[in-house]
Specification:
It is a single chain. The chain is α+β, with helices and mostly antiparallel strands. Helix content is 34%, strand content 19%. The protein has 21 helices and 27 strands. The N and C termini lie far apart (75 Å). Its cofactor is Zn(2+).
């Protein structure tokens, strides 16, 4: 069997695409021939004789099987034949079947049967049987109007006559020739977006999904000079359908965009039809307008908000902001998490980097991209002029300035009004006179200590060391082989990225991982990955690549219910208390995690706690070793910069490891040492000058300023 797209024979069609259409290929007559199997006809000159030519013409017209809940098996008895099927974007896929091949199609797929030019001899047996997914019996099929033994009674033709079909095909072919297809469209958009400043300096990218095919730009090339034949084409599992030829002399070697894992998240989670990744300057500025610790961009009461799906003039447009990483592919987990946490968003901002925008079609994605960029430019200008772009206009349309808001708040408090806690998203934002927050006592609870952020370690601080070493690590070690084998069989781009990261970051002495396609094949590759991972785990190494793969294995374990995480009993209550109900509410502090585990592993742990459920609502930021090692002073300075604090002494770090505490203290942070059951003994000499706490309840006295931090 071979399969390809008719509009471009160079584009192979993978089994994954056929499977998405409900089609499958096997050996002739190997399908289940149960009592409900009904052989309709044999398209054979020997069997049909004079009726052969007319029957072949009938099956050569585009048709489906209507509303009948069954599948059809096309069994090639002799010779070879084309079966053309339509994909979800209405493009023809041509399947070439040889002797003893079988193609099974569900009733809803448009199809046609044609002889090949090489062999006009056709001998195909067509059988019908119930669709296994519907459990329809033979009696139900006959009751639906089938006349047993008739191959034509349930056909639904797409066009009224062969002449109409030929005319429609001619128009479709002409249109494809005029616009150059999806590749030419992406090239045209790249040039337009370059002129707008969205994809300059080889940055940015565009991807369009056409049915079961995904078109993507290459990485590291001048987007305004890109050619249609330089685009990559993949199926929804990441298999390559078309790889561009070697680049022209004087141009950079071609490779698939590093945005691919992020694009696939929007396609799989949101069923998007197109994604635009922009490096526009206003997108970057929008991530910084509210400070480095802002996790959202908000704007309201602007006409151009109407251009964003699901929003109107009075809507508050909310766009999540995720932290940037040194490598684009490492953003994939954070972007997927943001997409799931903000079900109404059609964009995710990346701090100091740019934005990802998607839509159901390329036209919707383009329209929304233009609106987003306009709104970011507007917000930057309003901010420069001192106008609050997040505030709801008053009756006359005027926007309250911060000074006016403060004055009105004082007046309301004097009258005993405005005492309720703000329930607006983001917690503690003043949005007009009806969003005035809390009492003076509540707002100043942690003011005396000066602490605005609490940064927490996980192992030995929020979570038992035994859970990590007796549950999480053994699970990753025992499941790594099965996980990699399963994902490699699916050609999952995520696991391919994990393997490449392990390969690139292999420590000295670590078992190497061969390139794919080397000696031993996929099985040898999988065995090498298992050896590499277990070698690192036996030595308790904390490489970023290892932690990333472990996080993906744990994600699968949590999803299956095989894992539930542990936190100490005092932790959930403390998180709620410190944040005043969630993510730094009025009068509360903001919470962040810094662990050697990947950011995804951190989020999973706090999402699936056995005793308290999902605790992520209290956490603002997650940091892993991509910012630096936990015993390095510079790491804590980098974290403080990301949090946007005025001074490092506004951050309290909780850890059970003295060396980490020393690095954080040298950077300028406040530090308390966590002493939990099962933790290693604290070296008294190294631990001099540190205050030890055995419960988060003991931290309150320091946060409230009742006890001073040691100098």
């Amino acid at each position: 069997m071979r399969a390809w797209y008719l509009n471009d024979p160079h584009q192979a069609c993978t089994p994954a695409i056929l499977e998405e259409l409900g089609a499958c290929v096997g050996k002739a007559f190997e399908a289940d021939k149960g009592p409900d199997t009904l052989f309709l006809t044999a398209i054979s000159e020997k069997e049909l004789r004079a009726a052969f030519a007319d029957t072949l013409k009938e099956f050569g017209r585009e048709h489906c099987m209507g509303a009948v809940s069954e599948v059809q098996d096309f069994n090639v008895v002799d010779g070879q034949v084309y079966i053309d099927v339509r994909d979800s974007a209405d493009a023809w896929i041509r399947v070439l079947l040889f002797k003893e091949d079988r193609l099974t199609l569900p009733s809803s797929v448009w199809r046609r049967l044609l002889p090949t030019t090489e062999d006009t001899h056709v001998d195909v047996a067509i059988a019908s049987r119930p669709d296994p997914s519907n459990g329809v019996s033979k009696g139900a099929r006959n009751g639906a109007g089938r006349k047993e033994g008739s191959a034509f009674s349930v056909k639904t033709y797409r066009f009224a006559s062969p002449a109409d079909e030929r005319q429609a095909m001619a128009v479709w072919t002409q249109r494809r020739g005029q616009d150059g297809g999806t590749q030419q469209l992406i090239v045209d958009l790249c040039r337009q977006f370059y002129d707008l400043g969205w994809v300059t300096g080889t940055g940015g990218s565009i991807s369009i999904r056409e049915g079961n095919r995904v078109f993507m730009t290459p990485s590291g090339v001048q987007k305004e000079r890109i050619l249609p034949e330089e685009l990559y084409i993949l199926d929804m599992r990441g298999n390559h359908l078309y790889v561009p030829p070697e680049s022209q002399p004087g141009r950079s070697p071609l490779k698939l965009t590093a945005c691919a894992p992020l694009f696939f998240h929007t396609y799989r989670i949101r069923d998007a039809g197109a994604v635009i990744h922009s490096h526009g300057m206003d997108c970057v500025l929008a991530t910084l307008l509210q400070g480095e610790d802002a996790t959202e961009f908000r704007i309201t009461h602007q006409e151009m908000i109407k251009g964003i799906a699901g929003h109107g003039y009075r809507s508050t447009l909310v766009i999540p902001i995720i932290e940037n990483t040194p490598h684009e592919a490492d953003l994939a987990d954070s972007l997927a998490d943001a997409i799931r946490r903000y079900p109404e968003t059609t964009a995710v901002l990346v701090r100091r980097h740019g934005i990802y925008i998607w839509g159901k079609t390329w036209m919707q994605a383009k329209t929304q991209a233009e609106c987003y960029h306009y709104l970011f430019r507007l917000a930057v200008e309003m901010h420069r002029l001192g106008i609050d772009y997040t505030a709801t206009p008053r009756g006359d349309g005027a926007t309250l300035s911060p000074a006016m808001l403060a004055k009105e708040k004082e007046a309301l408090l004097a009258r005993g009004e405005g005492m309720g806690c703000c329930s607006g998203a983001g917690g503690g934002e003043l949005q007009g006179s009806h969003a005035l927050n809390g009492s003076h006592e509540k707002a100043g609870r942690y003011e005396k200590s000066g602490i605005k952020h609490v940064l927490m370690d996980i192992e030995g601080t929020t979570t038992s060391i035994d859970f990590v070493h007796q549950n999480l690590f053994p699970y990753a070690s025992t499941q790594v082989g099965a996980h990699v084998r399963e994902k490699l069989a699916e050609n999952d781009p995520e696991v391919l990225g994990d393997i490449q990261a392990l390969r690139d970051g292999c420590p000295d002495g670590c078992p190497p991982i061969p390139e794919e396609g080397g000696e031993g094949g996929r099985e040898g590759l999988m065995e090498a990955v298992v050896k590499n991972v277990r070698w690192q785990m036996e030595r308790d190494l904390k490489t970023t690549a290892l932690k990333r793969l472990q996080g993906h294995i744990w994600r699968a374990g949590y999803a299956k219910g095989a894992l539930h995480s542990h936190v100490y009993e005092d932790v959930p209550k403390a998180l709620a208390r410190w944040t005043q109900g969630g993510k730094g509410g009025v009068g509360g502090v903001k919470l962040a995690i810094y662990s050697s585990g990947s950011r995804e592993a951190q989020r999973l742990l706090f999402e699936h706690t056995e005793a308290a459920g999902d605790l992520r609502r209290y956490l603002n930021c997650y940091f892993d070793t991509s910012v630096g090692g936990k015993r390095e002073v510079e790491s804590y300075r980098q974290i403080a910069s990301s949090l946007g604090v005025s001074g490092l002494d506004e951050v309290l770090f909780l850890t059970d490891v003295v060396e980490e505490g020393l690095a954080a203290r040298e950077a300028g942070m406040r530090v308390l040492l966590s002493v939990r059951p099962g933790n290693a003994e604290v070296d008294e000499e190294k631990g001099k000058g540190f205050v030890k706490v055995t419960s988060f309840e003991e931290v309150d006295a320091f946060l409230e300023g009742r006890v001073s931090f040691p100098i």
